[in-house]
Every structure is written in structure tokens, then in C-alpha cells.
């Protein structure tokens, strides 16, 4: 059953397990099914007195460009815990999570980004190992030409548009159907 | 590097890859890193003239008990598409997604459940292969003693409590800190 054309690791081949309706990675030796599912990225638009926290990336991809604190949700975390952890790891920032600002499903790369609105507990931030520098930007001084990813633009726009809203129905990606 | 005490498949061992800060499953032969991340379950509270769609499970776990249409998000889907697909697969229901009702992070099992409020496009529903039967229940006739999972109780409660709200800030699990 193995397929020499693909580069799946080890003795896995792609086939439809009994009772399923789509192809999975199945071990030809032991029958183990390696399910692959979309991954969750958690992040924050965190502010202090109207200024927004951004991090300049020290790692690929998009090294040197500015991004929001964000990263993959890890096993055993809630989405809020993951967002708080990423802000600490990347910017040594301490946060209070407010509410969910956006859920960006990026189906092409099987990623679901969950971005929270958050308040910084203090303006003391400093770069973690994955950041070259971190800074608080007034909305009109955000380095818009040096933003790392499209979803950072979306989140900053959605943040500004919902700034006066006490209750947010999470925004979706611009191209995403409801 | 292999650990005879664990039952990880094949030649993987658990160690911290260079530049990472937590243990991952790494292939001892080729260095392939098998990242494990929480999985997303997408589901719906779907209604027709105030009645709510439930499905009686034809499969383990909790076979014979009632649940909301829900299941794992698949690669290449948006969360809304996944919720619509699950409602079709389990209840042959056609939906219009309204908005995100709840995000239940269940860290113990590394699951994030995203439950949407939705409208049925018609009351014609019928069991798919994973359901013994499907039905529309008025709120006061929901089979509360035969519900499959705690999160189904949460979602039904959150749905009722937000019924009059045009804009919902997604609810979280009862034990979950903001």
C-alpha cells in the first residue's frame, strides 16, 4: 500500500480507514492512524494607554518584520492561556485578556488564528528570544509597511473598528464567508 | 535516545529540539518532528422555529445519547465550513451560520470546541451514518438526562442565555478563567 511518490515519513500510506470518509496517514505495519487536523494559532492585540504592542521577528519567516505576539497553541492549554504565554515569551508582557477579537480561518494552510483583545498590566516589555525588539505604537505610528503577515493587518484593523465595542462578535478573515 | 517506557509509535523519542522549549516527538532515524497540538471540534446549536436540532449517537463514545452536530475540523476547512459539514453528515441538515456562540477550551484533553449559533434552512433532517435518529426539540423538551457530553449541556445553556442577543461575545467553559 505504500506510495513511493509521496514523502510521508516511515511506513505510512494514505488511505481511507474503515468507517471513515477521507484519506488518512495509516501505518502499514501497525495500523496506527496519524490524524492531521488544522492547528490553532493564538495571539493578542494588547494595548497600554491606546498604544499597541508589536514585536519585530528575530526568526524566519519574515525575520525583521513586525508582528503581534502569537504562536501555536500547545497541548494542555486553553486558548487564553496560550495567548498569555505567547505574549510573555515574545515580549515579556503581562496581560489581562479582555475578549475574543477575531477567528481567522486560513483554510489554505489549515490554520485557525484566534486573536484576543487584551490589556497590558504595565508598559514594561522587552524582547524574548524570538524578538529583535518590542515596542508600543500609537495607532497612527504603526509600521504598516513592515508588517510580517496579512493577518496582522486584519487584526489591527479589526481592533480599531471594534475599539468602542464592549461586546465583540469575533471578526473573520476578509475573504471568509460567514 | 529511545524510551522503552513509553508507547510512542515507531522510532520516535520525546526530546526538546534545538531552539524549542518543550519536548516533542522526534524521529531518531531522520530527525522529523511530529508536533502535537490541540484539535478543534466544530459544532452547531441549530434551530427551526425555536426548536433545537439534536442527534442520537450511533457510535462510541456515548452511543445512544443525544448530542449536537459536531466533530473534528478537517484540513483545508474554515471553522464555519466544518460546522456546516458536520450538520450535514450527522443530520442531513442545511444551515445558515449566524455567529460564534462559544469557545470551550478543554485543556485536559487538548481540545478546543467552537460552537456556532445557526439557523436551519428547513425542518427536513434525517440521520446520517453516525446518528441513530435526529430530532427537533422545543427547549423545555430536551432530553436532559440523556445528553452525551458536558459541553452539550453548556452549549444548550449558553444558547438559551444569549437567545435575545444580536451580538455575542463567545461563551467559555464554566470552569475556564478569562
From TrEMBL, chains A, B:
What is the name attached to this protein's record? NUDIX hydrolase
UniProt entry tagged with the keyword Cell wall biogenesis/degradation? no
Kindly give the InterPro entries that the UniProt entry links to this protein. NUDIX_hydrolase-like_dom_sf, NUDIX_hydrolase_dom, Nudix_N
Against PROSITE patterns, the record matches this protein to: NUDIX (PS51462)
The record ties this protein, via Gene3D superfamilies, to:
2.20.70.10, Nucleoside Triphosphate Pyrophosphohydrolase
Keyword entries, A-Z? Hydrolase
A GO MF annotation of the entry reads: hydrolase activity
Per its UniProt record, what CDD domains does this chain match? NUDIX_Hydrolase
Domain Nudix hydrolase, chain residue ranges per copy: 37-160
Q: Which species does the entry assign this protein to?
A: Thioalkalivibrio paradoxus ARh 1
